[in-house]
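Continuing from the previous page of notes. For each protein in this section, the sequence appears first, followed by its structure tokens. Read the first protein now.
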Amino acid sequence: MRKKLYFLMGFFSIIFTFLIFNNITVSAATAISASDFDDGITNWRASGNNQIAEIPIANNLKLGYAFGLASNTSNQIPSSYLTSGPDSSITNNSVAAGMNLYFSKMNIFLDDGGNYISSVFQGSNSASNATTLNQQNVSTTSPRFMISPENSTSLNGRTGSAFSILGSPDSYGSTGNAGMTSKHFYIGSDKNGNPAYKIVGNFSRTNNSGYKNGTYNMEIELLLRASPSNSAIVQREMYVKNTASTDASFVTLFGEDTKLGSSNNGISNDHVPIWDLGNKQGLYIQDIYSSKEYRLMTTNQLPDGFDSYNGQAMSTNWTSGLSGGVPSGTGAEVNDNPKGTQLTASAVDSSYILKWNEKTLKPNETAHFGSTMGVTAKPYSIPTPTKTYTNETRSDGTNRVGDKLKFSLKLVNNGYGAKWNSQQIVDQIPKGLQIDTSSITRSYNGTAASQPDPTDYDSTTRKLTVPMPFQLTDDQYETVTFEATLTNDALSNLNESGNLVNSAEFLGSDYMVSPTIIDTFNASVDIPVQAADFNSSFTKQVKNISNNEDYQNSTTGKKGDKIGYLITYSVAPSSKDYLVSATTINDEVPSGLEVDLSSIQAKGTTGDWYNQTWGMNVGAVGPIKAGQNVQLRFEATVTANSAGTITNNAYITNVKTSAGQTYSKVLTNDADLNVQNVNTFLSVPNLIDFGSTNVYGKAKTLTNVKTNGELIVSHPNSNNFNVNVSYDNDDATSQLKTTDGKTLPSDDSGLIFIKQRTSSSDDVGTWQPISPTGTPIQTSDFAGNQQSLQLTNYVGVNNWKLKLAPTVETGSYSGTLTWTMSESV
């Protein structure tokens, strides 16, 4: 079997303000409890002292997070701080002094070999007395979370002291912003065992006519926790409960003064430009500190993420970066900038602002707000996965049994000077979702790649495993999409919150740091599901008649076997609504099966079977009342000459219910026939891409950056076997060459190499030249009795090498690899 292999070469200012003070009133505070907000964590415990948590990135680099101080007087992070931190002031009432706000600050930083690397502007971590920790000097110039009336237009601007959630209880008369009081600090952990920290307190503000900052009475939770994706990302969150007796309307803001590095030796650290991440998802900064290159990014890629964002020059008005300089303004997102668009000038003291659109809370209602923050150093990858869905049946925000959902699984490398060698995406499809295998797509950086093989979905284990043999550099991404229908099983598989949970894993390795270690990142999506008044089911079953089987979801067979299929559409006896009509029930039988037309029979709601001599299309359907069903059955002979899985499902179109609901097309489950007794390649790669390069008269070795297509074999007999790949650089019919006949010279060591494994694709492997007679992809045998053996991980990114001689000529080269199987002796 031959397939072509392609090679491609080719601020500081003085502000005077005049304030008009109102009478100040402070309402009664509510008692604080760790369980006041449903944040998903149940093991909270109170603490009077902070601690720090760290997420490993690679080697000695970690992303840390804490409330308050996280380093000692030498800017070091002792390991003891992981259980008992240095800051006992985090629940102190905050104090405002000019642009500074003290205490209870979120602190996200890098631990680079024990060295504390700040990601935001702050004063020295220690007091002038070198033996005394200065606990208050953490992110002093950043107000962090703020709330404001949407129409606040005061010339005094949105200052930290007047608008921050933290406020200044001891000096609130000047602004009306008492802020958070009765603070409690809690420590807990998430489902992955990562520490989580929160500060909960009462919040009050009385509108000051000089600032127009609004009157509010609330309870607030400020929360720090690791991203559930396993990526080096921290989520900064806020829960707000309206404890007033009237509605509360406000926009939420988040302001931060940027800087990279823990020292201000050299003002450039506080004057880093801010750049757009692109795709309306947030912003980033990057800088060099102590000869190392660092990057900070903040995104809206989490539930209840921000709506607007912008970079801005440091100012007392934290909404200066929004249009009109007011909370109702928009930010850089309206421009839909490409990645790398500069948002602040290079010579200004930079900051950024995030904004969530106006929210109105009735008394005792709660809202949630969040953003992510990641900090990394060059050349580490930050693989960031997401899983989302859209309802293609209805747009009212509900999901009901029978609805068709479209899922998108995406991983982007938010690294810095990084290369991520992706391997595969694994999606565990829960009961209650019927996947349409024909809808599965795969793309690389927005460009469609070869479509996944149908065998990538195992209907028995309900697991979708899609090989993703691509190399993702900074900001590049990979995506898998598919459609699925909600079935009645969803209602019996909901979690305590009433959601059907669909989780996926994204596997790969950081080529620049640990290329032989496979890491796994996670993403999940909660799907709230409601029972439909129309309760129906649509199934397809298969049996091997030659083996005297009963109907089931899958079976095996060989060429010549007779196979039976049964299709059933039923309306449950408990269904409130019924099927009024449908256009047809039909089945487009795939190749490898020859239908016996005389065997096609249909059964109506009366229970009588009749021959359907005209073919598979049953014509008009309905009505089908509660407790009734219709069926279609037929027989077919296996004609496939090669092994593999023949997946088949039926469909019903234009279903109309008695309540007026319409479903354009509904599919049955997949009925799988596994064809045996042929040793063959079900799929081989059609592109091994080595990218492009300049040789400049020097020898160079390239590794592949992408593999398009999958390697899947069928070996149903019981003998062990080998899989080999061969290449002959002397054969004019297969050698790498350009369209005008230029070829690639090779030496005695070979031209093309494969990473040969010992017994598993997870092995480190050794580089072996591909010979004309064939090179095994694994030294030990593969076991026999394999109907569909997925081997794409053996031939993915960084599994091939090409040695270029100094004399190689410019051009686009393509050639042919040959794949063979051999029986073990």
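Done with the first. The second protein uses the same format. Note its length before scrolling.
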Amino acid sequence: MTARSALVLGGSALLVAASLAGSRLVSRSSDPFAGLPYGPRGEVPSEEERMEEGHAWEMFDWWYGQRAFPHALIPQDGFGRAWTQRASVPRDPDLAGRATSWTSMGPNNVGGRMLAIALDPGQPGHVWAGSASGGLWFSSVGGEGPNAWTRVETGHPALSVSSIVIDPTDTNRIWIGTGEISRYERPLVGTPGARASYGMGVLRTTDGGSTWSTTGLNWTFDQYRAVIAMKGSESDPDLLYAATSEGLYKTTDAGVTWANVHPLLMAMDVVIDPTNDSVVYVSHGQLGVPAAPDAGIYKTTNGGTTWTKLGGGLPTTDFGRTCLSITKDGSRLFAGVSDAVTRSVLGLYRTTNGGTTWSQVSNENWAGGQAWYDNAMAVSLASNDILVAAGLDCYRTTNGGANLSQVTFWWAGFDGAVPNGGPEGPSDYVHADSHAVVWDAFDGNLVWVACDGGIFKSTDAGASWHGANGGLVTTQFYAGFANGFTTQNLALGGLQDNGTVRYDGTTTWSKVYGGDGGWCAIDPTNENVMYEEYVYCDISKSTDGGNSWFGIHSGSSSSANFIAPFVICPSSPSTIYAGTLGFERSTNGGNTWSFTGGQSNWNGTPMATIGVSNLNASYVMAGTGNSLGGVEIRVSTNGGNTWTNVTPQLPDRYPTDFTWNPNSTSDLWATFSGYGTGHVFRSTDTGQTWADVTGNLPDIPHQTVAVDPEDADWAYVGTDLGVFRTTDGGATWMDFTGDMPVAMVLDLVIKLDDRRMRAATFGNGVWEIDLPAAATGVELAGLPESGLGLAAPRPNPSRGDASLAFVLPAAGPVRLAVYDAAGRRVATLIDGPRAAGRGEAIWDGRDANGSAVAAGVYFARLETPSGVRSAKISRLR
């Protein structure tokens, strides 16, 4: 158990304190966070847990900056062009004959970041939900049970679904708004819009979600824009309003055409008076200084022809992101107003006269310092006095806004293997960072919340809560995903705002560490030894398979990227490299660290990624980069003591991955983010010279590359638009996404012992696939019917047994032996007469004396009167 994840077994503060290593109880009078009420229990989160409040913007800044660099903004039509280019990339023929190519590994029990909820007004229990980067989801069972949710394919790359409207008269008609933004573009207002995924306007279905089409609000993936909220009329099903980064749009023909009826930037929320469609309220505001021009709440009484800015008690300066909710009878309008500078909620405001005057009915700050990001609120459809507001935590009032009190605690969730579809914590737990609150029209006690931990619901009007995430595979994995080496059913990965999770062979993963999760590693010689990163290179280690952890490297936002790289060396697992402003090395499993070459700072920019050879820990490549620039890439053959700077040969883009051919110390690949340049490069001389092998790949950020262990010219890349494969060293590429969602793939890792590749996505969990057999020398699918043949070993590289299949054209004496790189025979597998035909020998990685050989490259040599054949074998420790 750690200070960043709490295991709450009941209402006792002492139980919580006993289970948190390093946490402490702090009286509210002495607590510097006393402005954030923690409720009647008396517990408070630890210092590190409280730091989580500020990480949302830092994560967005890092996420957006690496894709935009070297520019302040991502090219306006960059994603649209890439989507068109992707359509021209041929589909991989090796996937064509498979009924199922990729298989989801989950997690099915841990929900990822969700932005929107809509309840079917015609069918109780039918729920639609939009994720930040995992697309659109549907449940017909009210989110209950282990398989409650199904992903809805739209046929469009609508990864971010921010708002949903269902026609109350024909529930087959649904509109979804796409994209996410919290600040507008430079130089108009503030800095680049931070968002999790790409927007393309509004999509529509008329057949209940089977097919989707664009509407008149179609931005063709313009990455400066996003739909933030959308509402439909209860009396006119063709009337909808969309609050967007460009202002408030209106359609009167169900989306065929749209008009910007209030072109004031950063429209954040909109409500329509249920009793009069001509009366509409819209809020404008954003994070930072300057605030959105003329930010505030506006009202129209003539359907958007003219607008009036409301005052009468509302804040007049630094007006930030504001959520709106109106009662079913239209008599009350509530506003959760935030401050654009402090990023906190100023309070809950209410008007009972259509906005002429307002009263602050509560000054509770339910969003901490993240109101620009998680500020949601809704009044009950059954009672004008019951309202739920949600941000970091959920708050509830039963008397019209007064006595708004905290009812959930984001740090109280369970750890371990949370049951799929089961409780995720006590009844006062909802995951942090809520983005939508929705009340059920059929049941006045039923209210839903969409948050960074998925979907939660209450059946008693917000008094108690439980998770509804069974099968909602929307977790956002970062780079640095780790597989077990000898154990097939073992993996470890870091998640956005959902900690570090461990795969144990089922789609129900175990939460083993809290907070945000970054890079991970598993010792290939002892799988009980695991490593995980919090953020900023804050690394912890476990020696019992992830059940307990202790810190081995502290982190700092001043010296490391938000998600900073570290790697352990497969050939020498006690050697670990970590990237801060300098390149750090530990040779004792993280007990002590030093900067290599005496350089604690390369170029003033933190490390972006690190790669190390599977065969030799001395062969390493590292690169710096962040949203401000400073890319520098170096290669070392002596563990970082001295470096060769290869920056001029590679693009001025954020480096995302350096990967060695697992059978070579000279052959390595590199991928880069950004737009407008090559994204995949290869070197065959240990990084001294490089060739652009981007070929026909779309111009989209590339995040990862994996090299096939059986053929050095076979490689796979993960991009913001899925997975692609080359079988000719990068001259041409094929779309290898298959039936996996077109997701952002942040890491690809091949299990060397069984040719299984896993893809860690930013929005749809982890997927795996059995790789097609490579053709190295003799066809692996079948040795020749006649003649002499020796197949490449399977698996290769190997740590356990390696199978060597062969075929003999005639009976006679045969010797099959294994030699090291110097030509010394280390093991004899066959030495004597053999019949003609097929055969097989197994090498267990031991020499003639029964001792395990060292890791490295070996050669199997088949000698017969008909000739000689050989095959390369790579052994892992």
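What the second structure shows: Residues 1-53, 186-195, 776-782 have pLDDT under 50 and may be disordered. Residues 817 and 829 are 5 Å apart (CA to CA). We return to this in next week's lecture.
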